[in-house]
Automatic annotation (TrEMBL):
Keywords: NAD, Oxidoreductase. Gene3D superfamilies: N-(1-d-carboxylethyl)-l-norvaline Dehydrogenase, domain 2, NAD(P)-binding Rossmann-like Domain. The keyword Cell membrane does not apply. This is 2-hydroxy-3-oxopropionate reductase.
Length: 299
């Protein structure tokens, strides 16, 4: 694995989403150096042809483009700037692609600190869920300079079928916040619709089939609604992570003076779900909470 080879890429963070993205890069013919804080997560990818690296710094010695998929701002800062971090090991001219969902303000700070070392950052949060990550069919919202985006585009196209540059650093994170606000509003609407149906003795599964044929059709109604009908909350995208994402979106909105009442309501529902032991379940569990509050669920 030659660091200057355009087919070499590092990937740090091998959770539900990151492992799928790293696997997509391997299928596209990239030589992938992987690292995860819990090292056991590397094994499946190594068996598929990846190379394990003992630290972020070791990843940096193996590739000049490094992708991240980490849980929060603190984790990203530790990988970038902590002991054995990327910033101290990557040479000038390298690129970091951060697919994590973190605060736009933090992303801008990271970009500035890396730029001082001659390293470019593209914030490239993704949407689509676990299945899309595994199949390489995510949607990616990117922020960064045009030059950095152009350089990183082939790597992003290996994990996503839709890649759009939203603007400079931080713009990708803002777009992802908009995505989370939009899907949370739809989830709340679907949950309330099912509660309304049950309260009136109408089968919510039949209501779903009817709504799929009209203007209410959505990805949430197609996929997440099935979880509500089946009481299946195996993640998926965990409620704790959606809580984090929506909190970041509301903080971004507060800083900009945006009015976001629906997102605020869903955040409170997610907080209640996390407080009652559901943080590790799929975030669709907020629909169960709505049904419980409506006293409309089947026994």
């Amino acid at each position: 694995m030659t660091p200057t080879d355009d087919r070499s890429v590092g990937f740090i963070g091998l959770g539900i989403m990151g492992s799928g993205m790293a696997a997509s890069l391997l299928r596209r013919g990239y030589e992938v150096a992987v690292h995860n804080r819990t090292r056991a997560a590397e094994a499946k990818l190594v068996a598929a042809g990846a190379t394990a690296a003992g630290s972020p710094a070791e990843v940096a010695r193996r590739a000049r483009v490094v992708m991240l998929c980490l849980s929060d701002t603190a984790a990203v800062e530790a990988v970038l700037f902590g002991p054995d971090g990327l910033a101290g090991a990557l040479p000038a001219g390298s690129h970091v692609i951060d697919t994590s969902t973190i605060a736009a303000s933090a992303t801008r700070r990271h970009a500035q600190r890396l730029a001082e070392r001659g390293i470019s950052l593209v914030d490239a949060p993704v949407s689509g869920g676990q299945a899309a990550a595994q199949s390489g069919e995510l949607s990616c919202m990117a922020g960064g300079t045009e030059a950095a985006f152009d350089h990183c585009l082939p790597y992003l196209q290996a994990i996503a079928t839709r890649v759009l540059r939203m603007g400079d650093n931080g713009a990708g994170q803002v777009a992802k916040a908009c995505n989370q606000v939009a899907v949370s509003a739809v989830m709340l609407g679907v949950a309330e619709a099912f509660a309304l149906a049950r309260a009136n003795g109408v089968d919510p599964a039949a209501v779903r089939e009817a709504l799929l044929g009209g203007a209410a059709r959505s990805n949430i109604l197609e996929k997440n609604a099935v979880r509500l009908l089946q009481d299946d909350y195996k993640p998926g995208f965990r409620a704790g992570l959606m809580h984090k994402d929506l909190r970041l979106a509301l903080e971004c909105g507060t800083d900009a003076g945006a009015y976001m009442p629906v997102a605020a309501t869903v955040l409170q529902l997610l907080q209640a779900a996390c407080n009652t032991g559901h943080a590790q379940e799929d975030w669709s569990v907020v629909g169960k909470l709505v049904a419980d509050l409506a006293q409309a669920r089947h026994a």
